[in-house]
Known about the structure:
- With 443 residues, the protein is mostly helical.
- The chain has 3 domains: 5-107, Orthogonal Bundle (Fumarase C, Chain B, domain 1); 119-155 and 166-199 and 228-356, Fumarase C, Chain A, domain 2 (Up-down Bundle), CATH 1.20.200.10; 369-427, Fumarase/aspartase (C-terminal domain) (Ribonucleotide Reductase Protein R1, domain 1, Orthogonal Bundle), CATH 1.10.40.
- 61% of the residues lie in helices and 5% in strands.
- The protein has helices spanning 14-20, 23-26, 30-46, 52-71, 86-98, 111-147, 167-192, 211-217, 227-232, 235-261, 289-312, 326-350, 355-364, 369-378, 383-400, 409-413, 423-427, 429-434, 439-442; strands spanning 152-157, 160-166, 194-195, 222-223, 269-270, 352-353.
- The strands form 3 sheets. The protein has a two-stranded antiparallel ribbon with strand order 1-2.
- Helix 3 packs antiparallel against helix 4, helix 3 packs across helix 8 and helix 14 (369-378) packs across helix 15 (383-400).
- The model has no long low-confidence stretch (mean pLDDT 93).
Amino acid sequence: MKLWGGRFREAENRLMEDFNSSFxxxxxxxxxxxxxxxxxxxxxGKQNIIPPEEAELICETLRQMxxxxxxxxxxxxxxxxxxxxxxxxxxxxxxxRIGDVxxxxxxxxxxxxxxxxxxxxxxxxxxxxxxxLVLQLAEMLQQKGRExxxxxxxxxxxxQRAQVVTFAYYMDAYRxxxxxxxxxxxxxxxxxxxxxxxxxxxxxxxHQLDRGQTAEALGFNKxxxxxxDGVSDRDYLIExxxxxxxxxMHLSRLSEELILWSSQEFRFVTIGDGxxxxxxxxxxxxxxxxCELIRGKTGRVYGSLMGLLTVMKGxxxxxxxxxxxxKQGFFDAVDTVKSCLEIMREVIRTMTVNAEVMKKSVRQGxxxxxxxxxxxxxxxxPFRDAHGIVGRIVIACEDKGCAIEDxxxxxxxxxxxxxxxSIYEYLDYQNILNKGIKKEILL
Length: 443
């Protein structure tokens, strides 16, 4: 019989049972559900809402169930075809083991606040685990940069060579993005860390619950202030999916760079064999599939965010069954972003930086042109005039097939008498990076 079946004259249609069941996907909340039930049962006993000895029996049995699942003696997958969700399964298994005492666990609790506390605990844990993976990737980017210090490379705007930077500085740009992502996850975790347990279906219960006790036992900062909000809020899942989407955007941008850099046209880096694939017909191919998959999966995480926003956009207070649709999208987003972070960390760790190719690209890109303009400005030439002079120098170099630093002083002075021998110090790429204003680029 269903936990709610007493009000119904007829059994639920089997088609509706399958349609209504969330057990196949919310079974992953088993640990959170048992932990939440342990805290609730202990509180019921302490408050003498149920006899303390019965509360202890419930807790002891729940702990045994947890151990059985961890050891594989109680296998959830495919186990309970009739379970509506993980919450009803845990209670049914508890009652099977200890009889009617198990039925007292749900005193003063609704599935509405039960699922809300389970999801908050699960989301909180996933935020912590994802943040750790983000920080590991940030550290790997820094490490790869230091391993290749002081390799020079072009910096780009409009995908055109613009100014010289170091490879380490380029890696640090992505590191900064991921450090902000880690901070966002930390902020989201702090904001969500309020316990909805004890909110009941929407307006609490007449039982004298100690919500502070359960909140503390489960590691929450405090109980939720408003019962209605406590059971109907899914802001924290949407916020985390937004954080995940930003992480994936940054991963996708980095992936795009690596895809370009590993092409024959760039050859800046070589992707490790363990994170590339080949072609079934073209034996020469080495495809950066790890990066391409990350780039593709970004849209998948964006979809989870939009799905959650759409589910929640028109719901009245408090709980509505629509909210069951919060889980699959969030679970998929969590799994996707965590796997992408792990793969990208290893892609960075195993890739080879082709320093000589980067250096050659710097030399071919007139990346010291801005410094030539700065040189002229320092000698009294108005910037707009200096800009035009250097533009004409670049055209001349393109026609001649040489770099600016290959021009003789006499040739440079045909463009402006302000040039003298010291210009060649300005033209040297290492000197450019050694100047005080750009020391940070060296890392």
